[in-house]
Design a protein that fits this description.
This protein is mainly alpha-helical. It has three domains: 5-100, no CATH class; 109-200; 226-401, Orthogonal Bundle (hpI Integrase, Chain A). It is 51% helix and 11% strand. The chain is built from 16 helices and eight strands. The chain has helices spanning 60-86, 92-100, 109-122, 130-151, 163-175, 181-200, 226-234, 240-253, 259-263, 297-305, 310-315, 324-338, 347-358, 365-372, 377-385, 388-402, and strands at 5-11, 22-30, 33-43, 48-49, 54-55, 270-272, 278-283, 290-294.
């Protein structure tokens, strides 16, 4: 890849300059970024040709100065050539340091990764969710373990990262770490952000991800059928603990809220909507997008059931939601008691809302997308692709019309 590079000799008048010789400076410009250094020479302004960057005249003093500047220019070009041949990042500062004989300390991968994670940590609760920080922290850990596994080192300079590093890292995640396709792709994506930071700062000159491709595989989303939903709602549980978890799960089935949004739901989020009915109006934690959901009768009944629950009164929340870990553990018990042969997690409720509760009942995809707080309609379309029941119903209506 060709990078614009230029050299300029110019006069730099000192502050409060009036008369006398003016220092000559050398400016190196690479891709629009500059670095300058003094030549330790000066000249009278009227003896200087700005367009040529050289002294005027044929006298010995002018010839000697110009020869000196020619020599400096040749050394700068040599510094540029050495950097190119060594495959090192080509920046104005790098050329300047090479010219001056300074050994430029390269940035290391763990150093850059750690700096990035520290910034994410400082913005948790503002621009980032705690889960985002956890994901990048784990990604850094995997990267360090990969370097130890592949190269026997704990860290390395970012300019040593190449295409082979990326492909070997992906192989490590899939083979040694036993990551699924989508998990491996997500860790590589996190690593890619660090590489983009290095490219933007000029710490590396070529992109290790050039010609690299990875693809997320569509995962079949588990959701409950109408019959399973009915069975769950009517089931009498032996303990209040399971009944409470069932109610919170059902609430999500009829609102589409993710776990963190249900947990943080406050009474002020329940508002009168444009149609005069009760709505949930809040920002989604994950995407920070508004989610406005008309409350169905089942969801309203659950809200009213727990209105005077001690935990709700004490914390000002709509529902007494336990930890996500406990919820998922209890949901396994509930699925077994209800005879539901599916891997039920709390997120199953959100999928159930998108499919069984809304799309299968004729709610337009655009409305479903808005209620789910999706930032892209294509995300919602994934649900429609798995609805064989909906396809069957649509074809049944078509057959009916074709008989006319």
């Amino acid at each position: 890849m060709s990078i614009n590079f230029s050299i300029l000799f110019y006069l730099k008048k000192p502050k409060n300059y009036q008369t006398g010789p003016v220092p000559i400076y050398l400016r190196v410009t690479v891709a629009g970024k500059r670095a300058e250094l003094t030549t330790s020479r000066s000249v009278e302004p009227d003896r200087w040709i700005s367009s040529a960057g050289r002294a005027k005249g044929t006298k010995a003093a002018a010839k000697s100065l110009n020869a000196y500047l020619d020599n400096l220019q040749a050394k700068v070009y040599e510094a540029h050539r050495q950097l190119v041949e060594a495959g090192l990042p080509l920046t104005a500062e790098a050329i300047k340091n090479k010219f001056l004989g300074k050994v430029e300390k390269g940035r290391t991968l763990v150093e850059v990764f750690s700096e990035h994670n520290s910034k994410v940590a400082a913005l948790v609760g503002d621009e980032f969710a705690p889960g985002t920080l956890e994901r990048y922290t784990t990604s850094l850990k995997h990267t360090q373990e990969f370097m130890q596994w592949k190269y026997g080192v704990e860290d390395m300079e970012v300019r040593e990262i190449n295409h082979a590093f990326v492909t070997d890292y992906e192989f490590y995640l899939r083979s040694v770490r036993k990551c699924s396709n989508n998990t491996a792709v997500k860790y590589i994506k996190n690593f890619g952000k660090i590489i983009r930071i290095c490219l933007s700062n000029g710490w590396i000159s070529s992109d290790p991800f050039a010609n690299y491709k990875s693809k997320i595989k569509t995962v079949e989303r588990v959701f409950l059928s109408e019959e399973e939903l009915q069975r769950l709602a009517e089931k009498e549980f032996p303990t209040e603990r399971l009944a409470q978890v069932r109610d919170i799960f059902l609430f999500s089935c009829f609102t589409g809220l993710a776990y963190v949004d249900v947990q943080k739901l406050r009474c002020s989020d329940v508002q009168k909507g444009i149609d005069g009915e009760q709505w949930l109006c809040k920002q989604r934690q994950k995407t920070d997008t508004p989610s406005r959901i008309p409350l169905l009768p089942t969801a309203l009944r659950i809200i009213n059931k727990y209105r005077l629950h001690p935990q709700c009164l004490h914390e000002g929340r709509v529902l007494p939601v336990p930890s996500n870990q406990k919820m998922n553990a209890y949901l396994k018990e509930i699925a077994a008691l209800c005879g539901i042969q599916k891997q039920m997690t709390f997120h199953t409720a959100r999928h159930t809302f998108a499919t069984t509760v809304t799309l299968l009942n004729g709610v337009p995809m655009e409305s479903v997308s808005k209620m789910l707080g999706h930032t892209n309609l294509r995300t919602t379309q994934h649900y429609a692709k798995i609805l064989d029941v909906k396809v069957g119903e649509d074809m049944r209506l078509l057959r009916k019309r074709l008989k006319l």
